[in-house]
Amino acid sequence: MKKYFQFERLGTNYKTEIIAGLTTFLSMAYILFVNPSTLALDGVADFPDELRINKDAVFVATALAAAYGSIFMGVYAKYPLALAPGMGLNAFFAYTVVLGMGIPWETALAGVFVSGLIFIVLSVSGIREKIINVIPNELKLAVGAGIGLFISFIGLKNAGIVVSNPATFVALSDLKDPNTLLAIFGLFVTIVLMVRKVNAAIFIGMVITAIAGMIFSLIDIPDKVVGAIPSIAPTFGAALAHLGDVFTPQLIGVILTFFIVDFFDATGTLVAVANQAGLVKNNKLERVGKALMADATAVSVGAILGTSSTTSYVESTAGVAAGGRSGFTAVVTGICFLLALFFAPLLGVVTPAVTAPALIIVGVLMASSVGSIDWKEFEIAVPSFFTLITMPLTYSIATGIAVGFIFYPITMIVKGRAKEVHPIMHGLFFVFLAYFLFLRD
């Protein structure tokens, strides 16, 4: 095994790789509880229960998808890169597709599955490695930052910190609700841990918040910590059963958005982790084709299991910082996700007040990319700004992407920089324009 994972060449060993894998797992373990809460729309009180996805099944699907993606990435591509259902992608799935568009979660899972198939085709053909250069870097950055603002807004809403107001649309609550105060406490705890650069700060913050909630009787104390693995039957295979429902103009737009967001998220994370791990030689990533294939297959596998898009996690850099250099790091992380299946009883203590701080902090991390946008060039600033601001204000990631992609060709052409706009960007302009004019309900 040492020879297969090239321990000697990479200057690593079992102890270092195991510690790195555990570090990565703890850094991203929060997704085990945040993802079921998000997909089940826990913070939406008036959503019919019969239309919600089963939280226990999503918990199992999340753990299995993360285990599959991480282990496959480690064994096949030999990258110290872990995967799990992505933040932002799950918010788009739940709040835009299911809640906003009224699309059943089963059909939405079918859309995720199809987007994964597109990823696989592009990865096999090598097109995925080239297509990243088509869309301008500023729009990529704006999409990531906009999703960060959107996720933070959801967190503030779920915490009860931001509430609706008939005069101003939104407003600050009176902050007297005990659960809101618990969320604020959790937010401060997580911020302190993040500032102190504590590994697994978000996960630890959730644990401390849940414990505080139980101490003050805001959260019921679970009967047990370890229990039987819940059934995955409510979600398993639903994507395949509803494949015939995705071939509508509305769903095609959804699939396109799943594809675009995951494409940038996964590729950017892959490059970041590869650079940190020293896997970039002569400006080229080692075994990049295999890494992209592992990431692509995880999307479709996760959809079959019953979760939104599975993607590469930037938290993998925590494991790399701890010394992880080989694929064995990702394998250890995947095994940890399998063991986590036995901790399903803890789902009951993960209330919206517990997950809200995690959503807000993840939003902060994602929004940091806004600083890399060149705001001095107005033709760049306009589409970037509208991408950023439209996502939280319309409660839709898809709308933000569409608006930004419509404005970009216009501002560039007016500026006299039409030659810098790739033909595909012109094509997307008409696609999204048609979406707004004819296809959007």
From TrEMBL:
GO terms for molecular function: purine nucleobase transmembrane transporter activity. Keywords: Cell membrane, Membrane, Transmembrane, Transmembrane helix, Transport. It comes from the Bacteria. The chain crosses the membrane at residues 12-33, 57-76, 83-103, 109-127, 139-159, 179-195, 200-219, 251-272, 326-347, 353-373, 385-409, 421-439. It is a multi-pass membrane protein. It is found in: Cell membrane. Signal peptide: none annotated. GO terms for cellular component: plasma membrane. The keyword Transmembrane helix applies. The keyword Transmembrane helix applies. Belongs to the nucleobase:cation symporter-2 (NCS2) (TC 2.A.40) family. Azg-like subfamily. PANTHER family: GUANINE_HYPOXANTHINE PERMEASE PBUG (PTHR43337:SF11), XANTHINE/URACIL PERMEASE C887.17-RELATED (PTHR43337). This is Xanthine/uracil/vitamin C permease. It comes from Schinkia azotoformans LMG 9581. The lineage of its organism: Bacteria, Bacillati, Bacillota, Bacilli, Bacillales.
